[in-house]
Fold this sequence. Notes:
Elements: E1 7-10, H1 20-34, H2 40-43, H3 51-55, H4 64-79, H5 89-98, E2 102-106, H6 111-121, E3 127-129, H7 137-143, E4 148-151, H8 154-163, E5 166-170, H9 177-182, E6 187-189, H10 195-206
Parallel strand pairs: 1-2, 1-4, 2-3, 4-5, 5-6
Amino acid sequence: MAHMALTVGFDLDMTLIDSRPGIRACYRALSERTGTYIDADLAVTRLGPPLAEELINWFPAEEVPVMADLYREMYPSIAIAATPAMTGAREAIEAVREAGGRAIVVTAKYEPNAKLHLAHLGIEPDAVIGDLWAEQKAEALREHDAGVYVGDHVGDVRGARTAGALSVAVATGPCPEEELRAAGADVVLTDLTEFPRWLSDYRPARA
Length: 207
């Protein structure tokens, strides 16, 4: 019996893109615009969770929804051009395609801005699903029958495990290798440059 084509999900921030320069610049602009102190250098050391979870550190709870909207409105003109692809990102997507699979992006980032990042960098996944964090990511992974989910955060590991997908972690974000393993990652790679070889070994084992 033929096997279904493999679908691989990827996180975005610190997995496919190094969003620190753009996010740092956007937080600084928001701070200037609102007159509220934001430690942008600190904020970019804990990327992964939804925007509101960072903004609550700097604004009263009742102001967070309005500040989130303002941040997202400012984001395209400030953060997109400043954000490079992570080393190996394009090759990782291409490796999935060459294996006859589908590559999707599942991220906590606001979906329109996630799509702008990928378009700017010329990275073209088969689908982009935003506004999902940690266990919520399982909704999109199940919907697209993803067998593997690649991410840099323990929240990504939880999302993969909730979906019943293999968790492949890359130690390129805020969570070190030991923390990713402790959270239940099935595989931990140093970065995405190791992904194509891992995938080429995984496919025969899966078959």
